[in-house]
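Researcher: Sequence recovery benchmark, item below. Answer with residues only.
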C-alpha cells in the first residue's frame, strides 16, 4: 500500500476520481512550500517551484498495488508525462512516506494557477 497525494482531477468530485474507486481516503493535505500548479487545459500539472511561498492543496489516499498501476497508466508515467515521486507534506503527514505525480513536460504557454485546482 502506498500513500498518494492527489491535487487535481483525482480528488473527490473530480472527473478522474473513479480511478480511486475502492481506495481509502486518508485526509486533506498541503505540500510544504516549493510546489505550484499549472493548467494543462482540463487538468493540472504540479511542478517544483523555487519560490518558497508556493504550496499545493490536495488529498492523501491509501492506494493498493493494483490501484497504483492504474494511476501510473492514467498519469502517463511510461510516456514521460508525469513521474511518481516522493513528496513532503505539512502536518499531520510530515512524517509519512507519500508520493505524488509531478509533471515532466515543458510549461511554455501554460498559466500557473497557484495552489488549488478547482473541482
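Model:
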Amino acid at each position: 500500500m502506498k500513500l498518494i497525494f492527489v491535487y487535481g482531477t483525482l480528488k473527490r468530485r473530480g472527473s478522474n476520481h473513479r480511478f480511486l474507486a475502492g481506495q481509502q481516503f486518508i485526509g486533506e493535505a498541503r505540500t510544504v512550500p516549493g510546489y505550484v500548479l499549472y493548467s494543462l487545459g482540463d487538468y493540472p500539472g504540479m511542478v517544483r517551484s523555487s519560490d518558497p511561498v508556493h504550496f499545493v492543496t490536495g488529498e492523501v489516499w491509501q492506494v493498493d498495488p493494483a490501484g497504483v498501476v492504474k494511476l501510473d497508466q492514467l498519469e502517463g508515467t511510461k510516456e514521460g508525462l508525469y513521474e511518481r515521486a516522493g513528496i513532503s507534506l505539512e502536518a499531520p503527514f510530515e512524517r509519512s512516506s507519500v508520493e505524488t505525480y509531478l509533471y515532466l513536460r515543458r510549461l511554455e504557454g501554460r498559466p500557473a494557477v497557484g495552489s488549488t485546482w478547482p473541482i
